[in-house]
Amino acid sequence: MADPLLAPLAALAAGIAAARFAGPGELDFAAALAALIALALFGYRRKAKRAALASLLAGLVFAGALIQAAHRPGPAPELDATAREVVILSGCVVEPPAWLEDREQFVLELEPGARARVSLFFREGERLPKLHYGMKVELDARVRATRNFGNPGSFDYVGYMARQDIYWTASVPSGGQVRVLPGECGSAFRRAIFGLRVAALDRLEQLYRGDSYNTGMMEAILIGDSSKLQKVWTEDFRRTGTYHALVISGLHVSVLAAFLLFLLRLCFVPQGPAFAATMAAAWLYALVSGWQAPVVRSAAGFALFVAAKFFFRRTRLLNLIAAVGIGFLVFDPEQMFEASFQLSFLSVLAIGALAAPLLERTSAPLARGLRDLSDKGRDPRLEPRVSSFRVELRLMAETLALWTRVPERVWLPVEAAALRAVFYCYEIVLISLVVQVGLALPMALYFHRISITGLTANVLIVPLLSAVVPVGFVAVFTGWGFAATVAGWLLAASQRVASLHVKWEPNWRVPDPPLWLAAAFTAALIGFALALAARRRIPRMAAGAACAVLFVVILRHPFAPRVTRGTLELTAIDVGQGDSMFLAFPDGKLMVLDAGGIASFGPRKRPPQLDIGEDVVSPYLWRRSIRRLDVVALSHAHEDHIGGMAALIANFHPRELWAGAMPESPEWIALRETAVRNGVRIVPLKAGADFAYGGARLRALAPAPGYRVLDQPRNNDSLVLRVCYGERSFLLAGDAERQVEWEMLDSGALSRSDVLKVAHHGSNTSTQQAMLDAVRPLFALISVGFENSFRLPSREVLKRLSDEGARVFRTDEVGLISIRTDGRRLEVDTGRWSAARGGLYSPF
User: Fold this and answer.
1) What is the distance between the alpha carbons of residues 167 and 676, in angstroms, rounded to a whole number?
2) pLDDT, tens digit, for every residue of 558-588?
3) How far apart are CA 439 and CA 446, in angstroms?
4) Which terminal residue of the chain has fewer beta carbons within 10 Å of its beta carbon, N or C?
């Protein structure tokens, strides 16, 4: 077998996956493992080698299950403190602090295996103690446990942080007390490594002083510190499928290793010591860059490559990646469920199993044939097509020499150089195409994006950003300003290429493919790889055609949204401290009212790294197979309602945007421009608008036609809608406060409604008793953030709702809330209930 480690890797991975999702006891695994090993030994003694091999692979399946069971995390540590309580934390700074515009962030280890991510806020000019790794500190902070959004398919943020032993976030307000304690903690080795990391970051700060873009991007590219990276800077790279070249990854290790090997050989260092020094440098870089998994995997792969060279063994890419995968899964099986591991492994697997055989059948032999074109004695030792190719090139050189009177010996290297450039572009395009197809499933599931322009963007951006790495490190090590400038030019050129390709990139977002499609596409890819290895033309063509067809089906997603016709659905999506309501109308029309957002305050407010519309609301809609919305509506222009709306317009291309009273605030102006660019018609709604839509009846209750709009958004700007279907009705109150409630009461607009979306997240400024007396809801939905700083919902509102007999559902307690009606019956479901039943809510 050409790559004997692939089968053991597959068996081990199957066992790990089975144990994660099935979860039998460890003793069962151990017993089955022992029995299969005994069976394998028996089969080998009987010379039944195939039976022995099958038994060993089965044994590896159970070994993987046993490894996964042994690595299952125990219960999370607990801290005896509420979110609003100020507590004294003391511990060890275990990561170098990162400085942002208004805060300092670091990780504090309270005790082994229990850490908190601390944000230390400060005012301009305020002096703070200079913290570093290994320092003991004590501080007064408000602590919150990490928490997931309670929507089906939400990113498992709690699990992601727990893998770093981080279970809480802590905030120290400006002017808070931070006391440095005597003594040191941590290890001397890590202190030295972090010292190198901090020195490199400080050097980049000096080289790009006053240039926040180059500083943040270079720190992310070279050192892996993304604390200063802003999402808007990387959006073009994400959309063009070139983000892999931007973030620190195995590509960086390869480029640095090649550059260092070139320098060492240039200095006449023998091959053995040069490889050893390069391997040591690769592991040092993995340490300094934060021991990030892609870099560590690449360093391990390079170490295996060096070992193979030392023992004069031929290196096979698939066998190498399988060996690295087995090692990592044995020591950390949870990596198999991380997007980083899957994307890294699958991309290399696609290159080794698909791209390499295709190149070997097309350009690779011809590229090798370009060496020593003038040496005719090589021709008989090469493939016939390569020999013929070399003869044709020499004939062309003779012809050019006759035309131009330039000697043939000059034209031969010119031809070789030009063809090498052509072959390079062809190989990059082919590899990019193969990787795009091979990663189609994880890209659709994790990022809901498959790039088209990446085929050409990679040809230019990969070399540019690959050159940034060695040039940038020359600047870091030497402090040479010109090298830093050149690295900045290369980065700017790559950004311009990405921006140009974005203009051509169709803004397609891909919903989650159904399970049968994912399985069929995976089987087609495996069949294509096997057919390439077997060198059989007809199976190869059939499997390739199947891959192409299924790839197009994944990209186009011709599947209906997962909604129930003849039913009105109102779903409060868990967006934290904000509002976002999804409505599915009886005839299938789809609408989202508000899109959440993260409010930021102060003169130095920084754009949030989390876009609620892109990262929370859109994934929920994609999970329900929704590709387009008919309408988006905005209650008012406060950040916790409008913040994610631009992403929804870009991702789901609605036909209309409904809005009430909108002031000329920066937020509304920006959203209006986004709507116009995307061809969305803006429809203003005022009280009294009454119309049929989607098989239901809608009526706007506020704002009043004569409502006075100010310069800045207010809660009372809110668009209030009543939606009726059959005998049932929903009242969506936005953030309307008591003044608007009294106006609706005076006008007689309020009447009994079965479901009330409680205004202003349950604040006591809304939902007055008179309003409840008129509405008399059966169910009340409150969209509110977990342990929010506003202390919402208020006790007074909860008591009024309880006294009215309404059943209250809160997103901070039960996650997503769905209420459906066929016009008579009402059905309620929540994210947490579905999780308890093993249903919808399964963060992956």
Assistant:
1) 43
2) 999 999 999 999 999 999 999 999 999 999 9
3) 11
4) N
Question: For residues 615 and 633, what is the distance between their CA atoms, to the nearest angstrom?
Answer: 19
Q: Is the omega angle on the peptide bond into residue 793 within 30 degrees of 0, that is, cis?
A: yes
Q: How far apart are CA 389 and CA 393, in angstroms?
A: 6
Among 763, 723, 724, 725, smallest CA distance to 741 is for 763
Q: How far apart are CA 223 and CA 204, in angstroms?
A: 10
CB 139 within 8 A of CB 132: no
Average pLDDT over residues 208-230: 90
Give the C-alpha separation, 810 to 830, whole Å: 10
pTM to 2 decimals? 0.90
Predicted confidence at residue 838, as pLDDT, reads 37
Q: Nearest 5°: phi and psi at 839? A: -100, -115
Q: How far is CA 29 from the centre of its chain?
A: 34
Token couple for 710: 């100010």
CA 62 to CA 58: how far, in whole Å?
A: 7
Give CA separation, 145 vs 92, 148, 169, 562, in Å. Answer: 19, 10, 6, 33
Q: In what order do the strands lie in the sheet with 807-810?
A: 690-693, 696-702, 720-725, 728-732, 755-757, 779-782, 807-810
How far is the C-alpha of 751 from the C-alpha of 90, rounded, in Å?
55
Under 8 Å between Cβ of 759 and 552: no
834 pLDDT tier (thresholds 50, 70, 90)? very low
Given a contact cutoff of 8 angstroms between Cβ atoms, the answer to whether 607 and 618 are in contact is no
Other C-beta atoms closer than 10 Å to the C-beta of 655 total: 14
The Cα 533–Cα 697 span in angstroms is 61
Residues 6+ apart with CB under 8 A from 761: 577, 579, 735, 782, 783, 784, 785, 788, 790, 792, 793
List the structure tokens of 26.
């460890």
Both tokens of residue 805? 């007999």
What is the Cα–Cα distance from 107 to 588, expressed in whole angstroms?
A: 48
Contacts of 178 (CB under 8 A, 6+ apart): 120, 128, 129, 131, 137, 138, 139, 172
- Across the beta sheet with 581-584, the strand order is 681-684, 656-659, 631-634, 590-593, 581-584, 568-572, 817-821, 826-830
Tell me what pLDDT residue 675 has. Answer: 96
Q: Are 758 and 793 in contact (CB under 8 A)?
A: yes
* Amino acid 710: pLDDT: 85
At 310, list the tokens.
């030392």
Pairwise CA distance, residues 671 & 651, whole Å = 14
β-sheet bridge partners, residue 107:
117
Residue pair 531/575 in contact by the 8 Å Cβ criterion:
no
The distance of Cα 483 from the centroid of its chain, to the nearest Å, equals 32
Determine if the peptide bond prior to 558 is cis (ω within 30°): no
Burial, 59: exposed, middle or buried (Cβ in 10 Å; 0-12, 13-18, 19+)? Answer: buried
Main-chain phi, psi angles of 25, to 5 degrees: -75, 155
Helix axis angle for 49-70 and 26-45, nearest 10°, is 160
Q: Which three-class secondary structure state does DSSP give residue 291?
A: coil
DSSP string across 494-543: HHHHHHHHHHHS-----PPPPHHHHHHHHHHHHHHHHHHHHT-HHHHHHH
Distance CA 346, CA 442 (A): 9
Provide the β-strand partners of residue 780: 756, 808
